[in-house]
Structures are given as C-alpha cells and as structure tokens.
Specification:
The protein has helices at 29-41, 62-72, 103-117, 136-148, 162-171, 191-200, 219-222, 224-233, 237-248, 261-269, 277-285, and strands at 3-6, 9-12, 16-17, 46-48, 82-87, 89-90, 98-99, 124-127, 155-158, 176-182, 203-207. The protein is of the alpha/beta class and 286 residues long. The strands form three sheets. It has a seven-stranded parallel beta sheet, with helices on one face. Strands 1-2 form a two-stranded antiparallel sheet. The chain has a two-stranded antiparallel ribbon with strand order 6-7. The chain starts with a strand and ends with a helix. The structure holds NADP nicotinamide-adenine-dinucleotide phosphate. NADP nicotinamide-adenine-dinucleotide phosphate is lined by residues 17-20, 48, 128-129, 158-159, 180, 207-213, 216, 236, 238, 255-260, 263, 266-267.
Length: 286
C-alpha cells in the first residue's frame, strides 16, 4: 500500500469511510467488523468516522464505538492506524442533520469521542461543518484549545471554503493538517480547496468520492468517460475514480465508504492503478 502524509502521520493513500456502516440501511455488525478488518488486511491505516454517524438519538457515536471494537478484535498491531473523527454535527433521530459549533459543545463532544474510542488523545479531530450561528473563529478556537491541551493529536476541518481554510490555518497557528470536502465526478466544485491544500501542503480528503451511498452504483453509467477508462484498464469505474483523484495531487487521500469487505478491497486496489495523461484529461472533462 502506498502512503501519504497527514501532518506527521504516514497513512495509506486511501482511507475507509465509516458512515455506511452506521447510518440508515447499515448492515449487521458482523459484516461491518469484517469490512473494517478487510480494510486493515489491505493495508489501509486511515479510518474516517464521526460522532454523528448513527441513526437514533440514543446511539450517538455508533460508528466510533464500532471502529473501536473492530480495532480491538483485529488480532494484530493497530497502533499505526489513524482514526479520524469529527464533532460539530448532530442527528436528533428524525433523519435530519443539525449543527453545533459552540466551543462548549465541541469540548463536550470531543470528551465523549475520546471515551468511545478508548484513547488518551484523538489522532485527528475534524470540525465537521461550519455552524452559521457561531463565528467560525470561535469554533476553530475550541479545536485549537483541544490541540493545546493534548486531547487531540492533530486538527482538521471539513466542509470549508478557501477563506475558512486560511482562517483555520491562522487560528491553529499553522497546525491545520487536513481538509475534508465533498469531491467526486458528480461534485467537482471543491477544486479550489483542493488546489489550496496542495499549495499549503495540507491533506485533502474527498468525501463521498464515489457520489455517495445512494448514487455510487450508478457511477459507470452516469459518467461514461470513467466507464471507458475502466474498460481500458480492466478495472471498475469506481477504481478509476479513486485513481483519478489520487493523480490530482499528492495531498489527496480519498475516503470511500464501504459496508462490505469486497468494496473496500476493490478500493484499496485502486491505489496501484496508473492513468496516462490522456486518460486523466478525458476524466477531467468527462
Ligand atoms: N465530512 C462530511 O461532511 C462527510 C459527509 C459525507 C461522508 N463523509 C465521509 O466520507 C465517506 C465516504 O462517503 P460516502 O460513504 O457518503 O459515499 P461514497 O464513498 O461516495 O460511496 C459509498 C458507497 O460506495 C460503495 N462502494 C465503495 N467502494 C466501492 C467500490 N470499490 N466499488 C463499488 N462500490 C463501492 C459502497 O457500497 P457498499 O456499502 O455496498 O460497500 C458504499 O455504499 C463516508 O463514509 C464518511 O466517512 C463525510
């Protein structure tokens, strides 16, 4: 498995997104554990999660607890695995997603994530989504305090625009290590953030890289160029999508979601795909 850098941590060039294993239509826990173990077997050392990946209001942190159990039962050394979680989003239980970026709430959320993950310090803590009711500076100030206190080892942000990336970098005193934004063949408007991360040497983690849980299966039919290149390489359109992102910049680390061992194994294999400049330009336009 090739590696890339998040702050001072060397991680697999592609991570596992945990969301499909904990929100609506999630599988039985045994299949989720097998999926996480298959990711580790494939050399994946980055797992993305959030306290908000759950369904009912009484099961906040479902995905974090699941990942902690999967790591504990793996049966081999997992100390090099970076678990990246997030705070600032909530699910009240009616299917909606709400936000709370207040410093007091973020501190409380981080403490709860620490307990669920069973660690002294969270490897990478990401502010999930700007809260329009709280100044961005205040939310990021809370993340800085958690960093200063050693509750989190590294700090990231998510769903941020270029101004917010610069603001966060300044408030964190140059210690911003990652930006996680939506990016896929269907959603390319995060190119400016990707470019800025490339310039600043900050990891860029595309979320819903395959178009999201509901649309991932249609990738090859919706985006013909991806199907064509897949045919040329004897690969799948999903693998070509991940390889296309990886080719954009060494700071890119896609985090495809999976709820089956087969899909995360196929995604891990995409890291080794080589695209020609001609193929990349067809995918850029396709
Ligand atoms: N920061 C944010 O605001 C935010 C928002 C959304 C998501 N995220 C993060 O980003 C991660 C990825 O996004 P996502 O899960 O929404 O969508 P996604 O990665 O675009 O798509 C996930 C779906 O793709 C399928 N899949 C995965 N690898 C495949 C492969 N190689 N071939 C064919 N199908 C494949 C999976 O199917 P199976 O389920 O059958 O395995 C899964 O249901 C999430 O899990 C979460 O960690 C973050």
């Amino acid at each position: 498995m090739q590696t890339r850098q998040i702050g001072d941590a060397k991680v697999s060039a592609l991570g596992l997104g945990g969301m499909p294993m904990s929100i609506e239509s999630r599988p039985e826990e045994s299949r989720s554990i097998a999926t996480i173990h298959a990711a580790l077997d494939s050399g994946i050392t980055l797992i993305d999660t959030a306290d908000a990946y759950h369904i009912g209001a009484d099961e906040v942190g479902h995905n974090e607890s699941l990942i902690a159990r999967a790591l504990a039962s793996y049966g081999a050394d997992t100390s090099k695995v970076l678990v990246a979680t997030k705070g600032g989003h909530l699910r009240p239980g009616d299917g909606s997603w709400t936000r709370n970026g207040s410093p007091d709430y973020l501190r409380q959320a981080c403490e709860a994530s620490l307990r669920r993950l069973g660690v002294d310090a969270i490897g990478l803590y990401q502010f999930h989504r700007p809260d329009p009711n709280v100044p961005y500076e205040d939310s990021i100030g809370a993340i800085r305090d958690l960093l200063d206190e050693g509750k989190i080892r590294m700090a990231g942000i998510s769903n941020a625009d270029p101004d917010q990336i610069r603001t966060a970098q300044q408030i964190l005193g140059g210690r911003l290590v990652s930006v996680q934004n939506q990016f896929s063949p269907a959603y390319r408007t995060s190119e400016p953030e990707l470019q800025l991360c490339d310039e600043l040497g900050i990891a860029f983690l595309p979320w819903s890289p395959l178009g999201g849980i509901k649309n991932a299966a249609d990738l090859g039919t919706t985006y013909q160029a991806f199907a064509e290149v897949a045919h040329e390489l004897d690969a799948t359109p999903h693998q070509v999508t991940l390889a296309w992102m990886l080719a954009k910049s060494p700071v890119v680390i896609p985090i495809p979601g999976s709820s089956r061992p087969e899909t995360i194994r196929a995604s891990a294999a995409a890291v080794g795909l080589q695209l020609t400049p001609d193929q990349i330009s067809r995918l850029d336009q396709g």
